[in-house]
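About this split. The held-out portion is used to measure sequence recovery: a designer receives only the structure tokens and must propose an amino acid at every position. Recovery is the fraction of positions where the proposal matches the reference. Here is one held-out target exactly as it appears in the evaluation file.
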């Protein structure tokens, strides 16, 4: 069991098992129906189709397709814009490999942009120097549930006729100036993995208002096969990324709980921010006044000039108090991983890196000072919708006491 217990006996809910999740009778009833029907494949069942329609209605978009994972969702989005081998997709160096490997699998080149020093998101200002005649798309990752400044990004992209893909894996119902994340770019991607705002264990969703992109997305999830066409065929190279009816049944049970889950996460974050704001050396999450951050995780910026040892030292103190946390989040920027450093792709071919402009393969950390500073200072706290005041009190007290201990 992943549940953790503090030294004072207070249980901290964990999103890795039941204490930090809101799974219950609705999901069980749907699963019973699926098992009873004997139809576990979404091409014949009803639950995945229902999940797609209800998610589209909630977002207010025309087309939503469920798929096997968040990685599959990103891959589907990349395949929909259909890059030529060697074309470039601008993305964040602070992201999961599941958002990067699909770019390489489609023969395109990830081009890493710097991040905003307050939110750790890409901005139009950091994206613009990365644009080239080869740029095929821009991926705007709403990191930790805090939306990018999309108006400026869209304006820049539209001026070059470049589609923007929103990575909303961590940002269900986040809002930018009154618009939901996932409704602003040309395509958006969501993850239903275990620790997300709602979950089917693994799973993903892709959304768009563009009919032509929707057609390619549907086909790509279904091996390129034209289900429902008068004379179907496998029209292009594609995979089986379908979601099963079992996942769909859980998703249909989860979706009505999403708004309440988000409300609880936001309210808990507001409470913790109030408790931590007076603390020297700690910066709570920055949120633009016009935006809504929906807190996949709650992240602190730790000033090592004030708190000796910075995020690593504070994280060690909190872990000793049985508070799971992640100093430095992903530890290193994506371009420092071996797949980029050693260009480990298909056999010994190094494809598609062999097609890249040399300058975009210059992965010297000194070129990304803001990214390096972000990862050095960030401390990611665990977060879910089941935190009560007693949990927030314990986390806040632990941080205050740990900072005092490190500074004295």
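Reference sequence for scoring:
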């Amino acid at each position: 069991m992943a549940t953790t217990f503090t030294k004072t006996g207070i249980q901290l809910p964990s999103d890795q098992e039941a204490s930090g999740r809101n799974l219950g009778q609705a999901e069980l009833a749907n699963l019973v129906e699926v098992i009873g029907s004997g139809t576990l494949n979404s091409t014949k069942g009803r639950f995945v189709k229902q999940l797609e329609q209800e998610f589209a209605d909630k977002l207010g978009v025309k087309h939503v397709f469920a798929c096997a994972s968040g990685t599959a969702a990103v891959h589907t989005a990349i395949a929909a814009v259909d890059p030529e081998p060697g074309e470039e997709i601008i993305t964040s160096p602070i992201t999961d490999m599941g958002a990067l490997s699909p770019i390489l699998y489609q023969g395109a080149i990830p081009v890493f942009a710097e991040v905003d020093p307050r939110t750790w998101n890409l901005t139009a200002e950091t994206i613009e120097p990365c644009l080239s005649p080869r740029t095929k798309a821009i991926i705007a990752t709403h990191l930790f549930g805090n939306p990018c400044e999309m108006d400026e990004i869209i304006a820049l992209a539209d001026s070059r006729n470049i589609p923007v893909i929103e990575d909303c894996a961590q940002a269900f119902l986040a809002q930018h100036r009154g618009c939901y994340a996932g409704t602003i770019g040309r395509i958006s991607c969501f993850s239903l993995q275990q620790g997300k705002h709602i979950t089917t264990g693994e799973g993903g969703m892709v959304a768009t208002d563009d009919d032509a992109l929707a057609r390619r997305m549907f086909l790509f999830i279904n091996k390129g096969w034209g289900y429902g066409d008068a004379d179907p065929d496998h029209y292009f190279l594609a995979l089986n990324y379908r979601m099963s009816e079992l996942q769909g049944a859980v998703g249909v049970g989860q979706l009505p709980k999403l708004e309440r889950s988000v409300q609880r996460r936001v309210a808990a974050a507001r409470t913790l921010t109030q408790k931590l704001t007076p603390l020297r050396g700690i910066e709570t999450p920055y949120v633009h006044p016009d935006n809504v951050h929906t807190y996949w995780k709650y992240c602190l910026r730790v000033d090592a000039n004030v708190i000796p040892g910075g995020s690593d030292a504070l994280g060690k103190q909190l872990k000793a108090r049985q508070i799971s946390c992640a100093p430095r989040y992903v530890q290193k920027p994506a371009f420092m991983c071996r797949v980029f450093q050693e260009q480990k792709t298909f056999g010994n071919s190094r494809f598609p890196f062999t097609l890249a402009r040399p300058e975009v393969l210059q992965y010297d950390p000194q070129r990304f000072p803001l990214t390096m500073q972000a990862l050095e200072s960030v401390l990611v706290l665990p977060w879910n919708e089941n935190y009560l005041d007693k949990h927030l009190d314990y986390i806040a007290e632990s941080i205050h006491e740990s900072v005092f201990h490190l500074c004295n």
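Annotator remark: The chain is about 35% helix and 15% strand.
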